[in-house]
Design brief:
Pfam family, one: MFS_1
Number of domains: 1
Largest sheet: 2 strands, antiparallel
CATH class: Mainly Alpha
Radius of gyration: 21 Å
Number of strands: 2
Membrane topology: Multi-pass membrane protein
Structural class: mainly alpha
Shape: globular
Family: Belongs to the major facilitator superfamily. FHS transporter (TC 2.A.1.7) family.
CATH superfamily: MFS general substrate transporter like domains
Protein name: Sugar MFS transporter
Order of helices and strands: EHHHHHHHHHHHHEHHHHHHHHHH
Number of helices: 22
Keywords: Cell membrane, Membrane, Transmembrane, Transmembrane helix
CATH architecture: Up-down Bundle
Helix content: over 70%
Strand order of the largest sheet: 1-2
Length: about 425
C-alpha cells in the first residue's frame, strides 16, 4: 500500500485535525466530480435536440467523456509524479476549466464535435483527479474501513449528481425544447444551444477557485511504502503479478458502465415510457438519491456489520434483480426500478477500490491509474446500450447489464481473492 509522506505527516501529526482537513478538501473534489459527471444525463437529450442527433449519436456524449480515462490514465500517473499529488490536482482542475470553456464556442457554433472535445478535456482533468483522490481516501485511515470513507465521498459525489440536473435543467429548459424535436427552425435551435453558456461560466469559475484552494492547502503527499507486502513475492514487479488487481480493473470497467447506463439513460427511458421532458429530467435525481441511501447504509454497516466484499455481493445481486424487474414491467414501476439500480451500484465503487489495491505495495499508483482507466467502461458500455436501443427499443436494451452484474458478483465471490497468476 501507499502512505502519506512522512515529512508532511509531521506537519499534520497524523492528527484527526489534519485528516479531517484532507477529507473536507477531497470531499469538495468529489462534489465537483459528481456535478460535472452527472450533467451528462441532461446533456444527452439536450444535445440530441440542439445538434439534431440520432439516439446512437447522442450517446457519444458519454463516450467522449469517459474515453478520456483510457487516454489519460497512463498520463495521469506521470503527471502526478511530475507535479506531486497536490499541484497535480490543481493542474487537473484548471484543465477541466479549459474543457468547460470549450462549451462556449461549441454553443455559439452549435457544432457537436466541439462539444465532444470539451467533454473529452473535462474527462481528462477528471482522470488525473480520480487517480490522485481515491488513494488519499483509501490511505488516510484503516484499510478495513476504506469502503466507509469512500462512501462518504460518494455522498458528496451523488449529492452533486442529484443537484446538477435540477440546477442546470433550469437554464437548459428542456420542457420548452420538446417542441423543437425534428424542427428546421435554425434560429430556435441556435437560441436553445446558447442556454448552456451561463451555467458553464459558473462551472469554470468554481473550478478555478477550487484549483487555487487545493494549491494553497496543506494536503499531504502520497508516497509508496518502502517495502512490498510481506506476503507477495520479491519478484512481483508487474501489475500482471497481481491477478486480483487486474480483475479489479475489469470489474470497475463493468461497474462504471452499468452505473452510467442507470443514470444517463433514465431521462430518455422515461420519455420512451410516456413521460414528458419536465417530469423525466427529475429521474436522474431519483437514481442519485438511491445511491446516497446505499452510501449511508455503507457508512453505518461497513465494516461493523458487513465486510466490503459481502456488500459488493449484495449489490451485484440487487443489480440483477432490479434490471430484470425493469425489463419485465412498464410505466413508472419500470423507470423506478432503473432508478433503484443506483442503490445496487452504490457500494460497488467503495468496495472495488480497496479490494483491488490490497497488497500491491509500490504499485499502488500504477494500479490506481489502471483503475481510473477502467472508468472508460462509461464510454463503451452505454454505446452498446444505445446500439441495442436502436435495433430494438430502449427497454430491451437493458438486457446488456444483466451479465455484467453477474461478473461483478464473481469478483465479489472469488476474483478478489486470487493472489497468484
Amino acid at each position: 500500500m501507499a502512505k502519506l509522506n512522512t515529512a508532511e505527516d509531521s506537519k499534520v501529526g497524523r492528527s484527526s485535525e489534519g485528516t479531517n482537513r484532507s477529507i473536507i478538501i477531497i470531499g469538495a473534489l468529489f462534489f465537483i466530480f459528481g456535478f460535472v459527471t452527472w450533467l451528462n444525463a441532461l446533456l444527452i437529450p439536450y444535445l440530441k435536440i440542439a445538434c439534431e442527433l440520432t439516439t446512437f449519436q447522442s450517446y457519444f456524449v458519454t463516450f467522449a467523456f469517459y474515453i478520456a480515462y483510457v487516454v489519460m490514465a497512463p498520463v495521469s500517473s506521470r503527471t502526478l509524479n511530475f507535479f506531486g499529488f497536490k499541484k497535480g490536482m490543481s493542474f487537473a482542475l484548471v484543465l477541466m476549466a479549459v474543457g468547460a470553456l470549450l462549451f462556449i464556442p461549441a454553443a455559439i457554433t452549435r457544432w457537436y464535435p466541439l462539444f465532444l472535445t470539451g467533454l473529452f478535456v473535462l474527462g481528462s482533468g477528471l482522470a488525473i483527479l480520480q487517480t490522485a483522490s481515491n488513494p488519499y481516501v483509501t490511505i488516510v485511515g484503516p484499510a478495513e474501513s476504506a469502503a466507509k470513507r469512500i462512501s462518504i465521498m460518494g455522498i458528496c459525489n451523488k449529492l452533486a449528481g442529484a443537484a446538477a440536473p435540477i440546477i442546470i435543467g433550469f437554464f437548459l429548459q428542456l420542457d420548452k425544447a420538446e417542441e423543437l424535436v425534428g424542427t428546421t427552425n435554425e434560429a430556435a435551435l441556435d437560441a436553445m444551444a446558447l442556454r448552456v453558456i451561463p451555467p458553464y461560466i459558473g462551472i469554470i469559475t468554481v473550478l478555478l477557485l477550487l484549483a487555487l484552494w487545493v494549491y494553497k492547502s496543506g494536503l499531504p503527499e502520497v508516497e509508496a511504502e518502502e517495502e512490498e507486502d510481506k506476503n507477495s513475492s520479491k519478484e512481483n514487479k508487474s501489475v500482471w503479478d497481481y491477478p486480483h488487481a487486474v480483475l479489479g480493473v475489469i470489474t470497475l470497467f463493468i461497474y462504471v458502465g452499468v452505473e452510467v447506463i442507470a443514470a444517463d439513460t433514465i431521462i430518455d427511458y422515461g420519455i420512451f415510457q410516456g413521460f414528458d421532458f419536465e417530469t423525466a429530467k427529475g429521474f436522474p435525481t431519483g437514481t442519485m438519491i438511491a445511491m446516497i441511501a446505499g452510501y449511508i447504509i455503507g457508512i453505518i454497516a461497513i465494516p461493523r456489520y458487513i465486510k466490503q466484499e459481502n456488500a459488493l455481493k449484495v449489490c451485484a445481486i440487487l443489480g440483477v434483480v432490479f434490471a430484470l424487474g425493469a425489463i419485465f414491467t412498464s410505466g413508472f414501476l419500470s423507470v423506478a426500478l432503473i432508478a433503484l439500480l443506483g442503490l445496487a451500484n452504490s457500494l460497488m465503487w467503495p468496495a472495488i477500490w480497496p479490494l483491488a489495491l490490497a497488497d500491491v505495495g509500490k504499485l499502488t499508483k500504477t494500479v490506481s491509474s489502471l483503475l481510473v482507466m477502467g472508468i472508460a467502461g462509461g464510454a463503451i458500455i452505454p454505446l452498446a446500450y444505445g446500439a441495442l436501443a436502436g435495433i430494438g427499443d430502449q427497454q430491451s436494451a437493458y438486457w446488456v447489464v444483466v451479465p455484467l452484474y453477474l461478473f461483478i458478483l464473481y469478483y465479489a465471490l472469488a476474483g478478489h481473492k486470487i493472489r497468484k497468476a
